Structures are given as structure tokens and as C-alpha cells.
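Customer escalation, tier 2.

The customer says the design service returned an amino acid string that "doesn't look like it belongs to this structure." They asked us to rerun it and document both sides in this ticket. The original C-alpha cells are below, unchanged.
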């Protein structure tokens, strides 16, 4: 994830160049590379070599115009431009624009994304295609251009930094920062996996505008969104509620934007990619098709495990909706009575025993309550059901993110957590004592044998 501090630094750099009259992203990136080339020239002359501002400008005219073009700054602002160029590293600019391993961004989505692009290509349509939040899947820009042509595709980059780098790398592409809400598109591709820290606002803002303005009546769309966005996260919910209030939305939860849309015809949870794919069709439907799709380790095979289609009104009425909850219900799981909570557990370690005994993304108390719950008859039933939908530990761990456990009274929860950790401590101490005793016995055995030699 790109930190907010880095994003602010990158955006300040771009704003500084805009104030100097250079507002074209491609030209800004060009100047960053020009100044780094000048810096390398100066460094090659030795540590003692220094230059004045006039000499620096002359050096730039003599050594860089051929490769980087005419200098766009007057001499009096050249020093400011040079200073700005090093306020963020070139690597930071690239990372801020195309996070997730640079140009490989989104390539792991291949088994999920390729069928969408292939279906659109097979339609042989001529309408415009919008690829929103393209920095999330920079590794697919070239393929998309090859499939549909530069004239047909509009790429929307969430930040100026992404716009800058992608335009430099793909000069033939139409790349914009703001969503083109004055246009309607035949197809929309939107991917959001939480690359940026301001994900709640940017995601909901994009979703609201895409749904309201951008998708044509005869169009289709595929949204790929991090599964965590659909689970109850108190901190994120507060962000969303504040944003809802400001924008005048009445939905009780942000995901209702989707569930209310009668063109939403299917939801797929991709394992182990940790994303939901929401597909919007030309036709309206009362029911939504639901399924898990697991990518095998060699990525050559995808296993679909379909659930019973569900009426959208049922989803809207459900207090906590997830495909995991629904799958458990379809398999006759009846949860304990009372309120429930969900705590993420997704950091998979190599484990020998039950997969939930690993490094938890939670505090010690909640870790104890989760481990204890998974040892109950309810937890064991959940475990069996989840493994019927998952073939790998990674997929299982993703499904476990959607499991909810009962909320216990505070005093009971404290007592159970204390018992759990006391039991673990006692177990570890006794194991260590047994190991030490065995070491002593081994030593005696060796001594007894050596006496006979």
C-alpha cells in the first residue's frame, strides 16, 4: 500500500511543476529524468565539483536538449524546478502511480480478468470502454490496448502521479485523472484492491459516479473489489457514514449501491485473490447469481462452486451479508443465537495443525476467543464446510475472513481468554519440562552405551 505521506509528497511535486507552467504529465516525467541525468553528470566530475545556477542551466542546454527536448523553464525558475525534481524519488513516483510490483500490477488477476476482456472482444462492439483505477492493473494496459485499440479505451488513473507515469509509458493511450462523467460507456472495468490509504472515499466516490453517469443503458461492467470492503469494519464504516452524510446518500451501508442495482446479475468471490467480482449486464434481474471461483496453483484451471441464486431483497434485508455467511446457511449451518462479530485473520503461516492456529491480525484476547470458538461444535462444522469450498490453505484462510463468532459478555470473554492463554502457558511449560527430561535421559543412555565400548 502506498502511504499517504508519499502520495502527498508526489502530488506536491506535480503541483509545483504546474505552478511553473509545466502541467503536462508526460513533460513533468521528462523533466524528472532530465534533472537526474544532469545530477549524474555533475556526480561524475567528482565530489569537489560545484556549479552555479547559470552554469547548471548552461550544462542542461548543452547536454540534455538533444535527448530530452527544449528546457520549458526560464533561467530564473530553473533552480526551483531542479529542487522540486528531487523532493520525491523517481522510484516513489513510479510506486505511487503503479503500486503492487510496478508494471506487474494486477497480473495475478489474470484468470478472473481475461474472460471479461475476451467476452467484450467477442462482442465486436464499437462503443467506448472505460478502465477505471487503472493503477491497480497497470500490467494489463498493453493487452487492453492491443485488444481494443487506443481510440476506443479511456484509462482513468486515480492520481496525477499514475497519470504521469502511465502516459509516459503508453503515449498512445488516452489516460485521464477525473472520471469522464459526461460520457457513457459500452463497457466499464473497475478494480480496487486497497492500494491507496484513502480507499473508502475514493472507492465510493468512483462507484457512485460510475453507476450514475458512466454506464450506458446497453452497457456491461465488471467491478473487482477487495473482499474486506464488504465485511463490517467499524473504522471504515465511520468513514463511509461520514461520507454518506456529506454527499446526501441514504444507504445504510455502502455496498447497497450494488445490491439495489437491478443490473447487478452475479457476484463471484475469487479464491485466493481476495476479491469479489460484481458483474452488471444489459438486462435487469430480481435474483443475483452467487459463486466461489478457486484458481488452482498452476493457474491453468478455475473451479466454480455455485450457490443458490438469491433475491436481491433478501440481501438488502440481511444485516451482515457475505458469500461465506450465505454458503454456511446453504450447508445447513445454524449459528448460535445473539449478536456476532467478525475479526480478520488472513496472515497465513506454515502450520502443522488446524489452519486457524497461526499469526492473527488481532489482539491476544480476540485470538483466544477465535481459537476457542473454532474448537466448539459450531467451529468444527464451519471448518468442514469451508474446506468443501477450498482446496488450498490460502483459499481456506480467505473464506475464514467471512466467518462470524458470537459476542460474549465482557466478563465471560475475559475469563475464557484468560483460561485459554493460561492453558497454552501451562502446555508450553510442561512440553519444555518433558523435552529437558528427555535430553537428560538421552545423555544417560549414551553414557551407558559408551561404557560398553
Amino acid at each position: 500500500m502506498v502511504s499517504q505521506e508519499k502520495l502527498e509528497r508526489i502530488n506536491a511535486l506535480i503541483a509545483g511543476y504546474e505552478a511553473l507552467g509545466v502541467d503536462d504529465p508526460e513533460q513533468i516525467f521528462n523533466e524528472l529524468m532530465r534533472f537526474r541525468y544532469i545530477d549524474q553528470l555533475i556526480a561524475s566530475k567528482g565530489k569537489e565539483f560545484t556549479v552555479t545556477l547559470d552554469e547548471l542551466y548552461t550544462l542542461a542546454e548543452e547536454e540534455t536538449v538533444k535527448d530530452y527536448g527544449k528546457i520549458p523553464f526560464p533561467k530564473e525558475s530553473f533552480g526551483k524546478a531542479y529542487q522540486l525534481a528531487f523532493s520525491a524519488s523517481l522510484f516513489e513516483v513510479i510506486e505511487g502511480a503503479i503500486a503492487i510490483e510496478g508494471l506487474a500490477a494486477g497480473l495475478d488477476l489474470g484468470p478472473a480478468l481475461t474472460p471479461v476482456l475476451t467476452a467484450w472482444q467477442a462482442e465486436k462492439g464499437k462503443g467506448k470502454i472505460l478502465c477505471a483505477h487503472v493503477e491497480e492493473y497497470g500490467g494489463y494496459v498493453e493487452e487492453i490496448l492491443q485488444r481494443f485499440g487506443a481510440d476506443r479505451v479511456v484509462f482513468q488513473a486515480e492520481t496525477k502521479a499514475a497519470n504521469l507515469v502511465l502516459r509516459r509509458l503508453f503515449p498512445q493511450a488516452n489516460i485521464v485523472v477525473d472520471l469522464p462523467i459526461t460520457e457513457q460507456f459500452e463497457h466499464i472495468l473497475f478494480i480496487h484492491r486497497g492500494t491507496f490509504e484513502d480507499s473508502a472515499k475514493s472507492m465510493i466516490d468512483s462507484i457512485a459516479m460510475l453507476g450514475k453517469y458512466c454506464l450506458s443503458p446497453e452497457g456491461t461492467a465488471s467491478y473487482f473489489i477487495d473482499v474486506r470492503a464488504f465485511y463490517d469494519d467499524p473504522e471504515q464504516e465511520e468513514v463511509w457514514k461520514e461520507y454518506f452524510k456529506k454527499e446526501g446518500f441514504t444507504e445504510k451501508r455502502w455496498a447497497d449501491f450494488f445490491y439495489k442495482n437491478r443490473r447487478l446479475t452475479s457476484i463471484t468471490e475469487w479464491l485466493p485473490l481476495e476479491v469479489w467480482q460484481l458483474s452488471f449486464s444489459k438486462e435487469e434481474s430480481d435474483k443475483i447469481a452467487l459463486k466461489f471461483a478457486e484458481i488452482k496453483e498452476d493457474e491453468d484451471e478455475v473451479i466454480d462452486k455455485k450457490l443458490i441464486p438469491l433475491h436481491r431483497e433478501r440481501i438488502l434485508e440481511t444485516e451482515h451479508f457475505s458469500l461465506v455467511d450465505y454458503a454456511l446457511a446453504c450447508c445447513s449451518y445454524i449459528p448460535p443465537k445473539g449478536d456476532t462479530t467478525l475479526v480478520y485473520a488472513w496472515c497465513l503461516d506454515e502450520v502443522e495443525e488446524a489452519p486457524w492456529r497461526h499469526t492473527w491480525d488481532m489482539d491476544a484476547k480476540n485470538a483466544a476467543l477465535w481459537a476457542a470458538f473454532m474448537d466448539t461444535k459450531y467451529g468444527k462444522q464451519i471448518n468442514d464446510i469451508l474446506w468443501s469450498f477450498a482446496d488450498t490453505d490460502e483459499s481456506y484462510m480467505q473464506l475464514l475472513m467471512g466467518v462470524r463468532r458470537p459476542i460474549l459478555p465482557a466478563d465471560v470473554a475475559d475469563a475464557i481468554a484468560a483460561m485459554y492463554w493460561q492453558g497454552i502457558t501451562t502446555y508450553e511449560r510442561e512440553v519444555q519440562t518433558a523435552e529437558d527430561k528427555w535430553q537428560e535421559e538421552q545423555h544417560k543412555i549414551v553414557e551407558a552405551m559408551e561404557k560398553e565400548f
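Tier 2 assessment: The sequence is consistent with the input. Residues 97-103, 345-360 have pLDDT under 50 and may be disordered. The first strand starts at residue 129 and ends at 132. Sent an explanation to the customer and offered a walkthrough call.
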